[in-house]
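Entries read sequence, tokenised fold; example below:

***
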Amino acid sequence: MKSAVADTDGVSQKVIDSLREQIGEPKVLTGDEVLDERRHDYWVLSHLQSWREESLPRPGVVVRPESVSDVQAVVRTAAATNTPLVPFGLGSGVCGGIRPDPSVVLVDLSAMNQIREIDETNLLASFDAGVQGLVAEDAVAERGLTIGHWPQSIAISTVGGWVSTRAAGQFSTAYGSIEDIVYSVEVVLPNGERVQLGKAPRAAAGPDLRHLLLGAEGTMGIVTGVTLSLRRQPERRAYSAYYTPSLSAGFEAQREIVQSDWFPPVMRQYDAMEVVRNFNDLTQGTANERGLLLMVHEGPSTRVAAELEAIDTIASGFGLEPAPDEVGPHWMEHRNHVPSWSQLFERNLVADTIEVSAPWSRIEAVYEAATASLRELDAIVIASAHSSHVYRTGINLYFTFVARHEDSADMEATYLDCWHRVMEATARCGGGVAHHHGAGRLRKSYLVHDLGVTGVSLLRSIKDALDPQGIMNPGNLIPDE
């Protein structure tokens, strides 16, 4: 795989002048504040290094295109001068997909923020890639519709970013992840050509080329527009919650629910440690070291009623007991409230979440192996997990680790060790190492566990075919040779 030739002195003035000529001077930014703000995404390690006042590289120049033709002009200029490009949405990625250096033109897509069309007949909505997720959802909600994609980052992420990271929202068990919601994708390829992928409700026109962009994290081209399929707003929403006598009992109940063709949009099972941390005020004195399964039910009133009754019977059959009614609404209200990384650093803590998945027959082994490995570290304060995305064939786990160090210099090594332990334990037990946050720089060396050596080679071949100069987000996603 070829790599773009980095100019150690940064993006040349000739390239900057050409960009200004092509798309207009106001869209080409070189001010210190703008460059500083786009040095990285929301990856913990980047924020830790910044908090420790380490010198982090920044892009050579930021461009803010306002149209597809602007993006094409930028890409063609980059291709002609062998200048690396890094697409940037709102910077909510958590795996280090954004780590530019002075040789890079960072393409900030946030000015591409137009709602192109809402088609109520065909239940489709088309957006510029830079439209913020909550803006997109609010726009269709005004028509009595919903996208049904609710990542925790919905207010700080873009629809193009959802595609680029192959995202999954909190309501995915019924509504699907982004690959189930995307109707078509518009992209500018590394040679500057525009292509629209996706034309009909389903196609057998060869391999589905949309999937070259889903999860590509800016390495195969720049997503400029997205058309998403919609749903009507649900007639009724209801909640249910149960204590789980064991991890296994909760998993088995969830398996029976979805394999019986009941699909509550939200199904979340917490281990005992996470119950205390997230629901202590509601369950104190009642949980008794048990886990918790909560669900959100949506749809036509009659279906919701039937689902609640059927699931209650299933839960009872696996020894689950009703939890307080307030659990579901409490989660809904507080589900996106999390402390900032700096708040944790100031308490001598470094933390992260790691999402993986596995078939039903292997998920408990993944949980046991990963949490046991984390707890071998003296610095570990918390090693816990919950599930949050459920399928007929298996389930995901969302691990949380927290480590304490009096000396912040020790935090980085422990952070990387925690990730390594969870990745290796997951792979060893037959799970997949990346469920929905993408790979970035953090996970790329572990992709061989999911893809195999031949699969990694195939990924590199696709990258070389689309981007022979290696200018698109170099260093991201693609495992090093």
Summary: The two ends are 8 Å apart (CA to CA). The domain at 113-232 is CATH 3.30.465.10 (Uridine Diphospho-n-acetylenolpyruvylglucosamine Reductase; domain 3). The first strand starts at residue 28 and ends at 29. Residues 240 and 308 are 8 Å apart (CA to CA).
